[in-house]
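Async update (no meeting this week)

Hi team, since we skipped the sync, here's where things stand on the single-chain job. The sequence we agreed to prioritize is pasted below, unchanged from the tracker. I ran it this morning and attached the output directly underneath so nobody has to dig for it. Comments welcome in thread, and please keep replies under the output.
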Amino acid sequence: MNRKIETKDRGEDEPDVVELIDDLAAKMEGSLAALLKRQDELEKKFNRPARPGGGGDLDTKAGDLAAEHKALGAFIKSGDETEFKALATDFDPAAGYFVLPQMSSTMTKRIYDQSPIRRLSRTISLEAGDVWEEPIDNDESGAQWVGERQERGATATPQLGMFRVPLCEIWGQQPVTQKLLDTSSVNVGAWIEGKLSDKFARVEGESFVNGDTPLEPQGFMTLAKSALGDMASRPGNALQFVNSGSATAITADGLRDLYWTLRAPHRANATWLMASATANALDKLKDGYGDYIWRSSSTAGVLPTLLGRPVEFDENMPTIAAGTFPVAFADWQKAYVIVDRLGLRLVRDPYTSKPNVLFDAFKRVGGGVANSDAIKLQQISA
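Output:
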C-alpha cells in the first residue's frame, strides 16, 4: 500500500528533507561502487600467480595453474602473447622469453617427486646470482684437561672453508608440428609442461649421482673414495667406503659394517640408496639367525627398510659387480645440497624447423656434496 508522506511548511533556511535523502543515497551509492571496485582489485591481486622467489608454497592454486595453461596454450598454438601480458610477472617479448612462475613451481614439484636425491637432499632457492656459497667448518676446536697452575698453550684452531655450488643451465626442446597445434583439442600447454618436466627430471637425477663435468651439478659418486674414517685425514672431499666382504657380492655382515660406520648423529636420519637390481639381491640376504634383514612394508606408500632405515631406489646407481659401489647410506639433508634458480624460461621458435614449432625451455640448477662425513659407500670387495 502506498503511503503519502505529509510535509509541513518550512522556512526558507530549513533544508529540504527529500533533497537530503537524495544526497545521502547518492553518497551511499558512490561509496558502494568504490567498495566493489576495491573488492574486485583485491580479488584480482589474490588470484594473480605469485612472483618467483616470493617464498610461496609449491602447491599452486588450481585456478592459477589453469589460467597459466590456457595462456600457454594460446601462446603455443599461435604465438599470441595477450594473455601472458596479464599473467606473467616477467614479460620480455624483445628478448624472446617469458618467465612462468606457476609452471616453474609445478615443474619443480614434479622433479621432486621423480628424483630420490632431490626429494632427500637439502634444497636452496636462489633468487639472484650464479653461485651459492656458505661457510663450512672443516675441523673442530681443541680442548684439554689442565691443572690449576699448569701452563696453557694454544689449542687447535677450527679450520673454516667455503662451500660453493655454481649454477648450471639445463635445456630441453620439444618439437610440435604446426598441424597438431592447429587441430589439437587437448591442453597443449599441460602436455608440453609434462614432457619437459620428464626430460628435466631424468637429466637432473642422473647428474646428482654421476655428474662429472663443469656443465652439470657435481654427482656425489664422482668424488674420490677412501677407506679412511671421519676422524682420520681423508684426502680432500673423499667419501669413505666399507668393503662388502666378498669380491662379487654384498653380504649381510658388509651391510652391518656400513651401517655402523656412519656416526650416530647422521645414522639417525640416514636413508639407503641403491638401484632396483641391487635391492633384488639384498632382499634375499639373511642374518646369522636365518632372518631376512630386508623388511618390505605391507602398507602402500611406505618404504621398505634395511636394518631399520628406509630404502630409496635410484637407477643411476651402479649395480653389483667387482670393485663397484652399488649402495650408499647417508644423511642426505646434511650430505648433499641442490640449488635452484627460480624461474623457467620458454622460447617459441616457429621458423627454424618447419613444419615443426620448437619450444625451448631453460632452467638453472646446481648441486654438490656439503658434508662428506654424512655419506658412506659399500664397495664390492673382499
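Quick observations from my side:
The radius of gyration is 31 Å.
The longest strand covers residues 336-349.
Reply here if anything looks off.
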